[in-house]
């Protein structure tokens, strides 16, 4: 798609698909915003007689700059929708997207993947709320709740200083985090990020019994547990992470080491709560979530808690932990995945006998890394993945030297 800022005839932005056909509703929203200088907010007021809150839409006046921010941020969102590799997420049906996908754009794409600053994230949230409120007010679309998740607020703030944050965690640092997990469930979730490259929501994609996904019957973990016994010399096991549980609906193969799979089996045998769910990782909370698959953001909250515990221990015992890198308060669960991807990319460079700086989007090393990580290699932003890992390899080497020198 492309966007035209038509200052001559229409005096508003025009959004076009790849066939140069206008996207009607975004264009109408832009016209409404620029012609009226208004934005719609969803507000609540206290009804003192009923002693309850009443919710309503309210039109507020906004400045020229605010008008520009709303239509510009909407354009960024629509381009993300266009690149989203899933049949249910398209420009044609973007108005009917569940809040889950819109919040994925804000919390996963902008904050965690693109590492946008708090200002940019707030602008995007404000713009998307304005657009979807407009759809609700004029076209009776279901109201969308679009916001920054509580666990991502600090991350967004820290992105203001993103260049100062080392996003690569050395293998020894990751092991230190794993060792401070309080349960087998916690250790598995942390290792899934650092050893398999899982996103936090992809922890919901581990199934026990064989299951149908992506057009065929896939091997479940119970079958892999049997292979642990029948194939004693096997050190690596393949597991199909289904598209329904991945970002952009892009299925991929995970290569699980024997020790990791044995940890999963031990959790299943000893710790997993009784549940009819076919998911491996089940909440053991005492509230209503017990017995159900862990929450999408479980890994995010877990990492924050464990990292703070380890960070405090390092501060209290600097001599004991002198050989470890510092863990920044801005490090996140996503950095476990980023570290895994960096290792895959680095090892690919070593095997190919190539310098990281020489890798391009056509390189076998890049394509293999993208495959292992579930990245697309055809989108307009495909080369950004290469740039991220080239930079991360440099961070990796600098950290190793720093630790080696004490």
Bin the helical content. Answer: 40-55%
| Name of the CATH first level of the largest domain | Mainly Alpha
Structural class: mainly alpha
* Number of E strands: 8
User: Based on CA inertia axes, which overall geometry fits?
Assistant: globular
Q: What would CATH call the architecture of the largest domain? A: Orthogonal Bundle
Termini distance? Answer: 51 Å
Structurally, how many domains make up the residues? 2
What is the strand arrangement across the widest sheet? 1-2
Give the count of helical stretches: 13
Low-confidence residue ranges? none
Q: How big is the Rg?
A: 24 Å
Helix-strand string:
EEHEEHHHHHHEEHEEHHHHH
In what range is the share of β-strand residues?
5-15%
Provide a quick synopsis of the model.
With 406 residues, the chain is mainly alpha-helical. The protein folds into two domains: 160 residues, no CATH class; 234 residues, hpI Integrase, Chain A (Orthogonal Bundle).
Description:
The chain has 406 residues and is mainly alpha-helical. The chain folds into two domains: 2-161, no CATH class; 171-404, hpI Integrase, Chain A (Orthogonal Bundle), CATH 1.10.443. It has helices spanning 24-36, 64-83, 99-113, 118-139, 150-158, 171-179, 184-196, 221-230, 258-270, 298-316, 333-352, 364-373, 382-404, and strands at 2-6, 12-16, 38-47, 52-61, 211-213, 216-218, 236-241, 252-257. It has a two-stranded antiparallel ribbon. A two-stranded antiparallel ribbon has the order 3-4. It has a two-stranded antiparallel ribbon with strand order 5-6. Strand 1 and strand 2 (12-16) form a beta hairpin. The model has no long low-confidence stretch (mean pLDDT 90).
């Amino acid at each position: 798609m492309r966007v035209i800022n038509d200052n001559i005839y229409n005096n508003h932005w025009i959004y076009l698909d790849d066939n140069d056909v206008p996207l009607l509703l975004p264009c109408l929203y832009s016209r409404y915003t620029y012609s009226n200088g208004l934005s719609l907010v969803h507000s609540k007021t206290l009804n003192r007689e009923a002693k309850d809150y009443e919710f309503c839409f309210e039109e507020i006046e906004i400045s020229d700059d605010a008008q520009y921010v709303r239509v510009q941020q909407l354009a960024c969102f629509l381009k993300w929708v266009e690149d989203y590799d899933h049949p249910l997420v398209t420009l044609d049906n973007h108005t009917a997207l569940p809040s889950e996908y819109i919040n994925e754009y804000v919390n996963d794409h902008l904050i965690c993947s693109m590492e946008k600053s708090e200002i940019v994230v707030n602008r995007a949230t404000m713009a998307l709320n304005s657009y979807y409120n407009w759809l609700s007010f004029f076209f009776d679309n279901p109201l969308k709740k679009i916001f920054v998740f509580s666990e991502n607020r600090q991350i967004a703030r820290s992105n203001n200083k993103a260049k100062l944050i080392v996003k690569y965690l050395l293998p020894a640092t990751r092991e230190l985090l794993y060792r401070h997990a309080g349960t087998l469930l916690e250790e598995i979730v942390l290792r899934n990020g650092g050893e398999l490259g899982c996103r936090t929501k992809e922890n919901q994609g581990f199934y026990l019994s064989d299951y149908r996904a992506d057009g065929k019957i896939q091997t479940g973990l119970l079958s892999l547990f049997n292979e642990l016994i029948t194939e004693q010399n096997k050190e690596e096991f393949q597991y199909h992470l289904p598209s329904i549980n991945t970002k952009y609906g892009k299925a991929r193969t995970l290569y699980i080491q024997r020790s990791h799979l044995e940890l999963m089996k031990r959790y299943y045998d000893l710790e997993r709560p009784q549940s009819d769910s076919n998911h491996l990782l089940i909440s053991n909370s005492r509230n209503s979530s017990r017995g159900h698959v862990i929450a999408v953001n479980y890994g995010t909250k877990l990492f924050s808690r464990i990292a703070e515990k380890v960070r405090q221990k390092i501060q209290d015992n600097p001599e004991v932990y002198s050989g470890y890198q510092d863990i920044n308060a801005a490090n996140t669960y996503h950095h476990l995945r980023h570290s895994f991807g960096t290792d895959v990319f680095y090892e690919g460079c070593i095997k190919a006998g190539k310098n990281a700086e020489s890798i391009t989007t056509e390189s076998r090393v890049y394509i293999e890394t993208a495959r292992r990580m579930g990245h697309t290699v055809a989108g307009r932003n495909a080369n950004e993945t290469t740039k991220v890992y080239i930079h991360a390899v440099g961070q990796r080497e600098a950290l190793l030297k720093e630790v080696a020198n004490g």
